[in-house]
Write a structure and sequence with these properties.
elongated; binds flavin-adenine dinucleotide; 300 residues
Length: 300
């Protein structure tokens, strides 16, 4: 199969890229599973121009229909291989089919690291969250904990303390700057170092407490697991796309969302923090426009 623009990823970044590329009359094929987008389990209340809290799953569903209306074709399969050819790109699908495209947008998101503890997947979205920035507001006047050893966990705990009544930061060994450690302590966060979660306990409907490795129990309404994310290393290595020099996890782009490989653009969480839908669609828009232009289609 041949197309102008192939988009890897059907979350907010990929969908927005598809809308803008298709509206420039480029042929667009979008790969991936919309139902696997990170936004699917979210209740969104920080996205511009929507006063109501929106269900992520409905936003993605509407986004796919919107992009299809402008001509984008969605294939519900992941890319298993991507290659740079002379003057084009080849992407192989799970079923073995190959797509050749003049330009490519990488929008495959990130995979958040899980703690791998009992109760974690069972209570996801019912007291277990991976994003303080996204969900802190749901813990107004409640008691919540943050798990992690790095700066995401420490700054997450500080942010959460502005909403929640009580916050506990659970850490094996906090590896952050002295300044951030001081900020944690002065923000009123209870700091529990040398401990980890053994089990997340619930009443069948929602989280109620945590059993910790030091033998104690924390009664809480919610737990934020802030253990960082897996990035785009594998895919990037295969394509020769450059990663950020600091963490070697996220794809580096310029203002056009272009990578170091001419014709390959990237957008959304795969380009780094903040992991937010507003950033993902903004970058998706820019990537979609520039990928369409690169593929040689004229502006309508
Ligand atoms: C629990 C939770 C709550 C959140 N709440 C909010 C919120 O309230 N507000 C907010 O702004 N943000 C929120 N976020 C963050 C938001 O979901 C992300 O920033 C956003 O989804 C990023 O969009 P993306 O398109 O970059 O990646 P994703 O939405 O993760 O989409 C990635 C897509 O790539 C596909 N894919 C993966 N591998 C391949 C492959 N090999 N080939 C093809 N496709 C592939 C996936 O199937 C998926 O469709 C939340 C996130 C979580 C986890």
């Amino acid at each position: 199969m041949k197309t102008d623009v192939v988009i890897l990823g059907s979350g907010p970044a990929g969908i927005q890229a598809a809308i803008h590329a298709a509206r420039k009359k480029a042929g667009v094929i979008v790969l991936g599973r919309p139902e696997k987008s990170a936004i699917n389990g979210a209740h969104v209340e920080n996205y511009c121009c929507t006063e109501e809290t929106l269900k992520g799953v409905e936003m993605v569903d509407d986004g796919v229909k919107q992009a299809q209306k402008f001509g984008a074709i969605f294939i519900n399969e992941d890319a298993v291989e991507a290659k740079v050819l002379e003057g084009s790109f080849m992407v192989k699908l799970e079923g073995g089919e190959e797509i050749t495209a003049k330009s490519m947008v990488l929008a495959i998101g990130i995979k958040r690291n899980s703690a791998g503890v009992k109760g974690e997947s069972e209570y996801l979205g019912r007291g277990v969250s991976y994003c303080v920035e996204c969900d802190a507001n749901f813990y107004k006047n409640k008691k919540a904990a943050v798990l992690g050893d790095g700066s995401a966990a420490a700054s997450g705990a500080v942010l959460l303390s502005k909403y929640a009544r009580e916050v506990t930061l659970i850490s094996r060994e906090l590896k952050v700057t002295e300044a951030l450690k001081k900020e944690v302590l002065s923000s009123g966060v209870t700091f529990k170092e040398g401990a980890w979660i053994e089990e997340i306990n619930g009443d069948g409907k929602k989280v109620i407490s945590l059993s910790l490795t030091d033998g104690s129990t924390e009664n809480i309404d919610g737990i934020f697991i802030e253990l960082g994310a897996k990035g785009a290393m594998e895919l990037a290595t295969g394509l020769g796309v450059a990663l950020d020099q600091e963490q070697l996890k996220y794809i580096e782009t310029d203002k056009k969302q272009a990578t170091n490989i001419p014709g390959i653009f990237a957008a959304g969480d795969i380009c780094g923090a903040p992991f937010q839908m507003a950033k993902a669609v903004g970058e998706g828009c820019v990537a979609g426009i520039n990928a369409a232009d690169y593929s040689g289609k004229k502006k309508v």
